[in-house]
C-alpha cells in the first residue's frame, strides 16, 4: 500500500481551502470506532472521500461505508487484480483500452477515455473489463489526488449487439451503484461517443439503476462534432479525432504504470476489505447492497410464480409458504432459494410436501458433493466444457409431444474416442437441461432421447461405473423433472454393455421407462418423429443450427452458472448433527488412523490360524523395529507386516530389507506409485480401457494364486493383494502378448525399476512368470528385462507359443474364455476389477498421502541408490580427459581446489560432476573466485526461480509440450569462423495467447542444459533471437521482473562464454523489448547486443548460411532441427526430473543467513517495494 507516490496531505491542504484539520480528525476518530473497517485507510484516502462529497461529513461517511463494502462484496470487480499474473486481466488489456488523458478540460476536470481495441466478441468479458477499468481509475485518482471534477468518455466504436448481449444486467447494476454511491470522484459528465442503434439497448440496461443526477450528466454523441460543445476534442487520442497521441503508445504507458504497481493491487486486496464478522449488529452481504436479485441467479428469464399458479391448479400458496418456512429452518441450506424453484420441486413431487423436501435435500446435497458434475461450469472459460461442446450435442427440442411432454435429445457429433470424457459430457448435459427447465418452467413431463449413433465399445469403456451410479442417483432422486420415458435410438451391440453398467443402479420405475430402438421406425410408436432434428429422421432443422442456438443460450447465461456454483451449495459444517460429507471424511480418517483399513481384508487372527509359522514374537519385533525408523510412515498395519514376513518365509532380516525397499520404491518411483486415483486420473481411465489385469480366483492344486495380465498395472495388483491377504503359497504372473506390438514395448522405459521392484520389494512369493501366445516381440521384451534380473527371477520365466506348453504348469481352465479357459469373458472379469478399484478409491488416495517415507528424517536415498541408475550421468558427456586435451589452461590443481571447496559448502547439492566444474571454470576463463561466484549464482538461481527451473518434465508437463509447438530453439550445426557455437530461437506459432514468457524460457534453458552437457566447453557462444512475427501483444505478456531474473541468470550464473546476442528481423517492437531489458543490462552485455532489421547486417558478424533455411540460411529446416532436439529432450526426461530433485541448494544448511529471491534480485525482485518517480 506504500508503493504508490501520491499527493501528500499537506499538498491537499494547499490546493483545497475547504479542507480542514477538524474534519480530518473527526473522520479518523469515527473510522477507529468501526471495528470491522480495515486499518490501512490513510489520511490521503480520507481527503479523497471528503473532497468527493464536497466536504459534507455524513455523505462522506456513507461513501466510505459503501466503498469498503462494495470492494468486499463485489469480487467480480475487486478481486484477482494482479496485472501481471491474472490471465483474464491480460486478455482484457488486449481487448479494451482505458486512458486517463494527460490534458484536462478548461474547467480543470480530469478525463478518462475508454474504447475497444479488439472487436472479437469472444474476447469481451464484462466483469474482466470492469475490473481493469477500476484498477486504472484507482491509480488515476490516487496518483493525481483531488481534482475539480472527473469526466468519463466511453467510445463505442466497434461495439455490436453481440458485445452488449454479453453484459449481465446485474453487473450493470453493481457498477452503477459503485459509481454513484461509492467511488471517491466528483463525476461531472458521462459521454458516449460514436453511438449507434446499439446504444438504445445499452441505455435500456442502465436506466433502471441510474439516479436522476447521473441521468442529467449523460450525453450521447453520434460523432465527435457534438462533443466539441462540451470540451476541446484536441485532448482526445488521435484515433478519436484529437491530437493527444496514438492510442497504442498512450496505452502502453498506462499498462506499464499498472504493472509497476502490481504490489499495490495485491496489498490493497488483502488490506482494504471489511471484516463482516466484526460488524456491530447484522453482517452485510451482497443482498443488502443490491437486493436478492443482485446474486446473478435471476439473470435467467423464467415463468413467474403467478404464471405457475395459473397453469397448475394443484399448486397452492399454502404449500409454497410451508416450504419457505421449512427451508428457512435448515441452517446448512443456501440462502435465497427462489420461489420458482419451490414450485418445480412441488410439481415434480406431484405436490406431495414430504417428497418435495426429500427431493430438495437430495438436489442440494448432490450439487454440493458431486463436483464432477456440478463444479467448474463456466461455459466460456472452461476448456473441458468447450471440448465437450464439440463432442456431444444436447438439444431441448422446440416442439413437444402430443401429451405436452418436453423432449431432450442427445448424440455424439464427434466420434473421436480421445475427446470423449464422461464427466465433462454429463456436466454439459446438466447445464443445458438446467436452463431448459428454468426457462420453460413446469411441464407435464419430460422425455430423454439418447441417440447412440457412432458410439463404440471404446467410448463405453471410458464410462466410469461410479459416474453412472452418481448420475442415475441424481436423475432418480434429485433432478426436478417428471421423467416419462428414456429412449435409446440406433442401438447396437454396445447397448448391452451400457445396460450392464446401468442396471445395478436403476429402480424398477425407471426401468419401466426404458425403450430401445434399432432405428427410428420403432420410435414412431411413441412420438411423432417430425419433432426430431433432420439428421435423426425428423423435420426440426439441422443439428448445427439448433445446437448453435443452445450453446449461445448457455454462453449468454454464463453469469448464472458462476453465481449458482458460488451461492447454491450446502454448508455441511452447519448441518444439524454432522454434515454428510463431513461424516464420510471423519469415518475415513478414523479408518486410516486405525491402519489404512478401508479395505476389507483378512484379520490378524485369521492369518495366525492359516499360517502356523507366524509368531507373535516376530510380529512384535517388527512393530518395535518399524517404530524406531523415524522416516517410516506411522501406523503400518499388522496385516502388512504379516505379508512381508510371510513372503520372506518368516525370516526377520530379509523381511526388514523388503519393507525398506517397498516403502523406498513407493516414495521415489513416482512413475508407478503416484497419481493413483482410479476415478480422477485420466491416464488411469485410458489404461483401464486398454488393458486387463485379473487375479484368477480359482486356486489350483498347488495353491498358487495366478495373476493374468494383458499389460502391466500395479494399481489393480495392490487392491487384489489387500483383499486376498497372504494366504497364497506363491503367485504367478501370466503375461499375454499376442496383441503386443513393438511400439507398445518401446514405451516401457522403466523396466529397470519394475524388474527390481518385483523381487526386492513387492510382498509376494513369486514362483513363476509366464509369457503366453508369444510372438517375436517377446524377445525384445526379455532383452530389455534381462540386464536387470537376478538369476532367481530369470529361472522363473517361461515362454509359451501356445496353450499346450502352459498345460504342463497349471490347468488352463482357470483362464478367461478368450485365452482358452473357462473362467468367464474377459470384459466381465475386467469390469469387476475396475469396479473393485473404484470402490476402493479412498484407500488408494489415503495410501499415497500417508504411506510414504519422510526422506528428510534419514540419510537421503535416491533412485540411484535403489537401482544403480545415475540419471544425471546417463547423458553422454565430454569426458574429463577430453576436456584436459582441448583446454591447456585447465589445471588439475584448480579442479581439485573446486572439488574441496564444494565439499565445504553444506548447502550445495551432492556429487556435482567434474565435467560441470570444468564448464564453470572454462566459462570464467579459469579464474577461481569468479568461478565460485558463478556457481553460487547458478545453483541459487535454479533454486529460487521456480518459474524457469521447476516442473521440467518434458513428457509429464503439458506446458512444455505446448511451448514446443509455439517456440523452436535449436543449436545450429555449423560454428562461426571463430569456432563459436550458435543457439537460435524463434516463434513458429504467432498466436498471442500461446506465448507464455516463463514457459518459453524454461524450454530455452532445458535445451541449453543439454547442449552444454553433450558438447562440454566451447570457445564461445552466440545467441540469435529471431523476432519475426513478434507483435506488441506478445511483448505486453512479458513481466518486467521475469526479464530482470533471467538477465541476472544470463549475466551472472549461466556457464557460457557469450560473445554476442543478435536480434534478427527487428521492427519497432524491439524498442519496447530493449526498454524492458536495459535497466538490467551491464555495459559488457550491452556492447554484445546487435539489432538486424534485415539479413544483410547479420552477415557482417557470421556467415548467413549457417542459419536455418527459414531464416535465410542453408543450415536445414528449423522443423527438422527442432525435431531432433525435442527427441533428445524426451529421451533425457529422467535427467531433467533427477536434476530438479538433486541439484538444488538446501537453504536450511547454508552457513549464516538463508538466501531468498530478494537477496538475488534485490528487494524489488520479490515486489516488496517499488519506488515510483
Automatic annotation (TrEMBL):
Transmembrane segments: none annotated. GO terms for molecular function: phosphatidylinositol bisphosphate binding. InterPro entries: CRAL-TRIO_dom, CRAL-TRIO_dom_sf, CRAL/TRIO_N_dom_sf. It comes from the Eukaryota. SUPFAM superfamilies: CRAL/TRIO domain, CRAL/TRIO N-terminal domain. GO terms for cellular component: membrane. Residues 86-248, 382-544, 959-1119 form the CRAL-TRIO domain. SMART domains: SEC14 (SM00516). PANTHER family: ALPHA-TOCOPHEROL TRANSFER PROTEIN-RELATED, CRAL-TRIO DOMAIN-CONTAINING PROTEIN. This is CRAL-TRIO domain-containing protein. The lineage of its organism: Eukaryota, Metazoa, Ecdysozoa, Arthropoda, Hexapoda.
Amino acid at each position: 500500500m506504500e508503493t504508490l507516490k501520491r499527493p501528500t496531505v499537506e499538498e491537499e491542504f494547499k490546493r483545497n481551502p475547504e479542507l480542514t484539520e477538524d474534519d480530518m480528525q473527526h473522520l479518523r476518530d469515527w473510522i477507529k470506532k468501526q471495528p470491522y473497517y480495515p486499518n490501512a485507510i490513510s489520511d490521503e484516502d480520507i481527503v479523497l472521500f471528503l473532497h468527493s462529497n464536497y466536504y459534507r461529513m455524513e455523505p462522506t461517511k456513507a461513501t466510505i461505508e459503501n466503498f469498503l463494502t462494495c470492494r468486499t462484496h463485489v469480487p467480480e470487480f475487486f478481486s484477482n487484480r494482479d496485472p501481471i499474473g491474472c490471465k483474464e486481466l491480460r486478455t482484457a488489456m488486449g481487448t479494451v483500452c482505458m486512458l486517463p488523458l494527460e490534458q484536462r478540460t478548461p474547467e480543470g476536470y480530469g478525463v478518462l477515455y475508454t474504447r475497444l481495441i479488439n472487436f472479437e466478441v469472444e474476447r469481451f468479458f464484462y466483469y474482466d473489463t470492469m475490473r481493469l477499468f477500476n484498477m486504472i481509475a484507482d491509480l488515476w485518482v490516487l496518483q493525481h489526488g483531488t481534482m475539480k471534477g472527473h469526466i468519463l468518455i466511453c467510445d463505442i466504436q466497434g461495439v455490436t449487439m453481440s458485445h452488449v448481449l454479453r453484459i449481465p444486467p446485474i453487473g450493470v447494476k453493481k457498477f452503477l451503484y459503485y459509481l454513484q454511491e461509492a467511488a471517491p470522484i466528483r463525476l461531472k459528465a458521462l459521454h458516449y461517443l460514436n453511438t449507434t442503434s446499439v446504444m438504445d439497448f445499452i441505455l435500456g440496461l442502465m436506466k433502471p439503476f441510474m439516479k436522476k443526477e447521473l441521468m442529467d450528466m449523460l450525453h450521447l454523441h453520434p460523432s465527435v462534432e457534438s462533443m466539441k460543445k462540451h470540451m476541446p476534442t484536441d485532448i482526445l487520442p488521435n484515433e478519436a479525432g484529437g491530437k493527444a497521441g496514438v492510442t497504442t503508445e498512450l496505452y502502453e504507458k498506462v499498462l506499464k504504470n499498472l504493472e509497476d504497481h502490481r504490489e499495490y493491487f495485491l496489498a490493497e486486496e488483502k488490506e482494504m476489505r471489511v471484516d463482516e464478522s466484526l460488524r456491530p449488529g447484522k453482517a452485510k452481504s451482497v443482498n443488502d447492497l443490491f437486493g436478492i436479485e443482485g446474486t446473478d441467479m435471476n439473470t435467467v428469464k423464467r415463468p413467474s410464480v403467478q404464471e405457475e399458479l395459473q397453469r397448475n391448479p394443484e399448486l397452492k400458496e399454502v404449500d409454497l409458504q410451508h416450504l419457505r418456512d421449512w427451508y428457512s429452518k435448515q441452517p446448512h441450506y443456501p440462502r435465497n432459494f427462489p420461489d420458482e424453484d419451490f414450485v418445480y420441486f412441488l410439481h415434480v413431487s406431484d405436490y406431495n410436501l414430504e417428497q418435495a423436501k426429500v427431493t430438495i435435500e437430495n438436489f442440494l446435497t448432490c450439487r454440493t458433493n458431486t463436483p464432477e458434475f456440478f463444479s467448474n461450469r463456466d461455459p466460456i472459460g472452461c476448456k473441458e466444457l468447450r471440448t465437450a461442446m464439440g463432442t456431444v450435442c444436447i438439444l431441448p427440442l422446440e416442439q413437444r409431444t402430443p401429451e405436452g411432454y418436453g423432449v431432450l435429445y442427445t448424440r455424439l457429433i464427434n466420434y473421436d474416442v480421445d475427446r470423449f470424457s464422461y464427466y465433462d459430457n454429463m456436466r454439459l448435459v446438466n447445464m443445458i437441461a438446467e436452463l431448459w427447465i428454468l426457462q420453460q418452467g413446469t411441464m407435464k413431463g419430460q422425455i430423454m432421447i439418447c441417440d447412440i449413433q457412432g458410439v463404440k465399445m471404446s467410448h463405453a469403456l471410458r464410462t466410469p461405473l461410479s459416474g453412472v451410479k452418481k448420475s442415475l442417483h441424481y436423475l432418480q432422486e434429485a433432478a426436478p423433472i417428471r421423467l416419462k420415458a428414456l429412449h435409446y435410438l440406433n442401438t447396437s451391440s454396445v447397448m448391452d454393455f451400457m445396460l450392464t453398467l446401468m442396471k445395478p443402479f436403476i429402480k424398477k420405475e425407471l426401468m419401466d421407462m426404458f425403450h430401445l430402438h434399432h432405428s427410428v421406425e420403432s420410435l414412431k410408436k411413441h412420438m411423432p418423429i417430425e419433432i426430431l432434428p433432420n439428421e435423426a429422421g425428423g423435420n426440426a432443422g439441422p443439428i448445427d443450427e439448433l445446437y448453435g442456438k443452445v450453446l449461445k443460450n448457455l454462453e449468454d447465461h454464463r453469469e448464472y452458472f458462476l453465481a449458482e456454483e458460488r451461492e447454491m451449495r450446502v454448508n455441511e459444517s452447519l448441518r444439524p448433527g454432522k454434515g454428510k460429507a463431513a461424516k464420510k471424511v471423519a469415518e475415513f480418517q478414523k479408518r486410516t488412523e486405525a491402519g489404512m483399513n478401508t479395505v476389507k481384508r483378512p484379520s490378524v487372527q485369521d492369518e495366525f490360524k492359516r499360517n502356523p509359522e507366524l509368531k507373535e514374537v516376530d510380529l512384535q519385533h517388527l512393530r518395535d523395529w518399524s517404530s524406531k525408523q523415524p522416516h517410516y510412515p506411522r501406523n503400518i498395519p499388522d496385516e502388512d507386516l504379516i505379508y512381508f514376513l510371510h513372503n520372506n518365509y518368516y525370516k526377520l532380516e530379509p523381511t526388514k530389507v523388503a519393507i525398506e525397499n517397498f516403502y523406498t520404491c513407493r516414495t521415489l518411483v513416482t512413475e508407478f506409485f503416484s497419481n493413483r486415483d482410479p476415478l480422477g486420473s485420466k491416464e488411469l481411465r485410458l489404461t483401464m480401457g486398454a488393458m486387463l489385469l485379473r487375479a484368477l480366483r480359482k486356486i489350483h492344486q498347488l495353491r498358487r494364486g495366478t495373476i493374468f495380465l494383458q499389460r502391466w498395472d500395479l494399481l489393480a495388483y495392490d487392491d487384489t493383494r489387500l483383499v486376498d491377504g497372504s494366504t497364497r503359497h506363491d503367485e504367478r504372473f501370466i503375461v499375454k502378448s499376442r496383441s503386443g506390438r513393438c511400439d507398445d514395448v518401446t514405451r516401457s522405459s522403466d523396466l529397470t525399476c519394475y524388474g527390481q521392484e518385483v523381487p526386492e520389494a513387492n510382498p509376494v512369493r513369486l514362483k513363476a512368470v509366464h509369457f503366453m501366445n508369444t510372438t517375436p516381440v517377446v524377445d525384445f521384451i526379455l532383452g530389455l528385462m534381462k540386464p536387470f534380473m537376478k538369476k532367481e527371477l530369470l529361472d522363473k520365466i517361461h515362454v509359451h507359443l501356445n496353450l499346450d506348453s502352459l498345460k504342463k504348469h497349471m490347468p488352463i481352465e482357470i483362464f478367461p474364455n478368450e485365452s482358452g479357459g473357462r473362467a468367464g469373458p474377459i470384459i466381465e472379469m475386467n469390469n469387476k476389477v475396475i469396479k473393485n478399484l473404484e470402490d476402493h478409491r479412498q484407500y488408494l488416495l489415503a495410501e499415497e498421502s500417508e504411506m510414504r517415507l519422510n526422506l528428510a528424517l534419514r540419510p537421503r536415498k535416491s533412485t540411484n541408490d535403489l537401482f544403480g541408475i545415475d540419471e544425471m550421468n546417463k547423458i553422454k558427456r565430454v569426458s574429463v580427459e577430453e576436456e584436459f586435451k582441448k583446454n591447456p589452461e585447465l589445471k588439475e590443481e584448480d579442479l581439485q581446489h573446486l572439488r574441496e571447496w564444494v565439499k565445504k559448502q553444506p548447502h550445495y547439492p551432492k556429487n556435482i560432476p567434474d565435467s560441470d566444474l570444468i564448464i564453470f571454470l572454462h566459462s570464467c576463463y579459469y579464474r577461481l573466485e569468479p568461478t565460485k561466484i558463478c556457481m553460487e549464482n547458478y545453483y541459487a538461481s535454479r533454486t529460487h526461480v521456480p518459474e524457469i527451473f521447476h516442473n521440467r518434465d518434458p513428457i509429464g508437463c503439458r506446458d512444455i509440450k505446448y511451448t514446443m509447438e509455439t517456440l523452436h530453439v535449436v543449436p545450429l550445426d555449423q560454428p562461426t569462423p571463430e569456432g563459436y557455437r550458435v543457439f537460435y530461437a524463434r516463434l513458429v506459432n504467432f498466436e498471442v495467447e500461446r506465448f507464455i514468457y516463463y514457459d518459453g524460457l524454461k524450454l530455452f534453458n532445458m535445451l541449453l542444459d543439454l547442449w552444454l552437457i553433450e558438447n562440454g566447453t566451447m570457445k564461445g557462444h552466440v545467441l540469435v533471437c529471431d523476432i519475426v512475427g513478434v507483435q506488441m501483444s506478445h511483448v505486453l505478456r512479458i513481466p518486467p521482473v521475469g526479464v530482470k531474473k533471467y538477465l541476472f541468470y544470463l549475466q551472472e550464473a549461466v556457464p557460457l562464454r557469450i560473445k554476442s546476442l543478435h536480434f534478427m528481423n527487428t521492427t519497432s517492437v524491439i524498442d519496447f523489448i530493449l526498454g524492458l531489458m536495459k535497466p538490467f543490462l551491464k555495459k559488457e552485455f550491452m556492447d554484445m547486443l546487435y539489432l538486424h532489421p534485415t539479413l544483410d547486417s547479420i552477415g557482417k558478424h557470421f556467415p548467413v548460411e549457417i542459419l536455418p533455411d527459414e531464416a535465410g540460411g542453408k543450415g536445414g529446416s528449423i522443423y527438422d532441427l527442432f525435431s531432433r532436439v525435442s527427441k533428445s529432450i524426451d529421451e533425457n526426461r529422467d535427467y531433467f526430473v533427477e536434476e530438479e530433485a538433486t541439484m538444488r541448494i538446501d537453504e536450511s544448511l547454508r552457513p549464516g543467513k538463508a538466501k531468498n529471491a530478494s537477496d538475488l534480485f534485490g528487494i524489488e525482485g520479490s515486489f516488496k517495494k517499488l519506488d515510483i518517480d
